Each structure stands twice: as C-alpha cells, then as structure tokens.
Amino acid sequence: MMKKEHRLDQxxxxxxxxxxxxNYEEAKMNLQQSIAAASVGSSGVWAKLSTPLKTVIMxxxxxxxxxxVILMTPGKTEENKNLEQSVPKEVQKEEILDESSEDNAESVxxxxxxxxxxxxxxxxxxxxxGEWEIVDTTIDIQRFPVIAFPEIKExxxxxxxxxxxxxVSDTNTEVRAITFVxxxxxxxxxxxxxxxxxxxxxxRFSFNTSKRKKNGLMKKCSISLHRKFSDDRRxxxxxxxxxxxxxxxxxxxxxxxxxxxxxxKEDGKSLLDK
Amino acid sequence: MKKSKQANFLKLYEPVHDRFERFCRARVYGEMPxxxxxxxTLLVAFEKxxxxxxxxxxxSFLCGISVRLLANSHRKNKAETSVHIENFAGESSDxxxxxxxxxxxxxxxxxxxxxxxxAILLFEIAGFSIKEIAQIQETTExxxxxxxxxxxxxxxxxxxxxxxxxLGEERV
Lengths: 274, 172
Prior knowledge:
The complex is a heterodimer.
Chain A: H1 2-17, H2 24-40, H3 44-72, H4 77-85, H5 89-99, E1 107-115, E2 118-126, E3 132-137, E4 176-183, H6 188-200, E5 204-208, E6 220-228, E7 234-242, E8 246-253, E9 259-264
Antiparallel strand pairs in A: 1-2, 1-7, 2-3, 4-8, 5-6, 6-7, 8-9
Chain B: H1 2-27, H2 34-47, H3 58-76, H4 96-109, H5 114-125, H6 130-137, H7 141-161, H8 164-171
C-alpha cells in the first residue's frame, strides 16, 4: 500500500513540475484581447452617452405617444395645431437619435498582433458607409506608415473558404493561402471548422463568441491564433470585433500544409502579398 | 486607470501562472479545452479585481472563480454528455515519459467525483491548505479531508491497473 501511495506522490510530483502548455505571455495576450473586446461595448462616446440617451429616448417616446393620442382625439383641431407648434425641439432631436439604435452604431474592431515578441494594438472605428478611422494605436506610425484595413463593402456576407486555392509564389517553393472571412453571421460550427483546419496546419485557434443576439448574430467576437515553430519562433495574432464586422484573415501554408505565417487581408492585395 | 489596473493584475498573475495553468488543465481534462476556463477565469477575475482585498490570496481568488464558473457551467449543461479528450499524442515535449505519466494521472482523475478531483488538485497542484480549500469549495474542513482521503484511495486503486483497458472497465 505504501508503495502505491509513493507511486501516486511521484505522479503528482510529475504533474507539479510539468512545463505549462500555455506560457504566461500567451495568457497575458489572451487576457488583453478579452479585455479589449469586453471594453469595446462599454467604452467610447456612444457607450458613455447610451444610458442618459436611452432615458431621454424613452421619455421622448412616451411623450410622442401621448402627443399622438391627443392629436388623434377628434374635436380638438385648434388645440392640436397649438400642440403641433409647441412640440419641443428636444423631442424632435431625440427622434433623430432614436433612429440610430445601438445595432446601427459604428462597429469597432480591436486588433492585437504579436510577432516574435513585438506587440501592437490598434482600435478602428468603422462607419456605416464603410469608411474607417484609427481611434487608437500603439504602432509607431513613423516605423509602419501604412496600416491597411480590409474593404468592408465588397466582402461576401458569410464565411468563405478557399482551401484548394493556390496563389503563388515562387517556382521552387509551393505555398498557398487558406482564407476565411469572418462576419457577425458566422456560426460557432463554422468557427469550429476553422479551428479544425487551423489544428491541421499546426495552429492553435481559439475563439470566443459568448455574446450572441436572439437571431444568432454575434454581438462580440474575439479570435486568436498561435503558432510555435520548431526554431522557437512564435507568431500570434488576436482580433476582437463588435457591431457589424467583416474580416478576412488566414494563413500561408507550405507544401506539407503547415502554417508558415498569418495574414489579414489588406486592401486589394492577395493574402500572399507582403 | 485601466492600464494601471491591468498592470497590477498581471503583476500578481505572473508568479502564479504556472500553478494556475496546471490546475485548469488538470481540472477540465477530458471535458473541455483548458484555455477556455483559464481565459474566462482571468477575464472575470480582472472584472472583480477591485474586490480583492489581500494580494496574498490572489491564486485562491482565481481558483475560487474557476470553481464557480465550472459549477455554473455544469448546472447549465447537465444534459450535455459530450466528452472532449485532448489529443496529447501530437504534443511536443522535452520529456515524453513525464508527459505520459501526467496524462495517465489526469485520465485516472476523470474517474473521481467533481468535488474529489477539485480538492485533490487544489491540494496537490495548487498547494492550498485544507482550510483554504474549504473556503474555495464552500464546505467544511472535514468534508475536504474526506474528499482528499477518498479521492487518493480511488486513484491508488485505479492506477494499480494502469492500462487503458482496465480504465475502461472502471468507467463501466
């Protein structure tokens, strides 16, 4: 019995001294990405104003309904005219605000990219017309003057995969791009399929879509890709999204189907273009 | 303000990361990817970080949150019976023998009850005292002692066989 107990203690000792599968840096990066995703909806001007705005909108809606009831009451035409003239300006203003519901608010994409230890974080605000601007970035613009973002309008609405597509390349080295388009309509099953393909390419792909609307559309989503190469080089890419988003990303695989790099699509370029 | 909160949080987390990672990995072995539990716990812990009164109990704070997250998740998914088994054959390891031993132990631990497994991991891997485990598991110290005793006895019995075939029999 003592021998068996000793064996158990030995096994626990092995477990205690085992090298962690996820190192501190990865955990830190995942946390930062999750915090960024969580704060997207609760920070920014819209979010700060949303509570008082909602109150005002509610009051104005009640006021408007009340007004409509009075206006529709027969035999009070003169009175109605007076009321119509005296519709407070703030009510009219708030009706306009009411049109821009939370769903139509601008979407925000936060992107964290780390390549061999160098990390950057950029927050984009995307407008209804597809234009975008950088809200905040930790990238030294002097060093990296071009920050490209994928074209929003022309992206297909759902996930599209081109596993067999060969874009290349070099005559000696056969590489191809595996491309995915992520939108707020992407389902967990589709994300799991991406995860499966990532695994086949030697990538650890994780995603979090804990917030979904009743119709299945994602409110928020975050993804991260990690790959550790045999020469200890590491490559990570994390992105988080909210609102309506459309994001093309993927990886470049070698002839053996193993990922050699991660990419996000830049305007008018193939995933293979540097 | 937020940056400084994050920096403080990470400062406390860095020294306990290894123990916490091992705890999460062993705790949900065979159930779900441990990364999900670890990431979710860290996010919840970060949100509740202001409530942490004593920095010395940070690891206990993290484990308490992960235990509650799992309990909530089990309540919601009672009907779900799918089992996720990690594929460790492809994992690169400097010491394959040790890796195999760890997996053997983790596999054996899936045969324990949730409370027993949790108590053993908190005691053996995270290094908590019985009193601390009682607080995390929201139970009495006597109950923790019993879980540890029974859990270890069961593990010893299971590991005596040490083969997939016998483990299969145990499960039945």
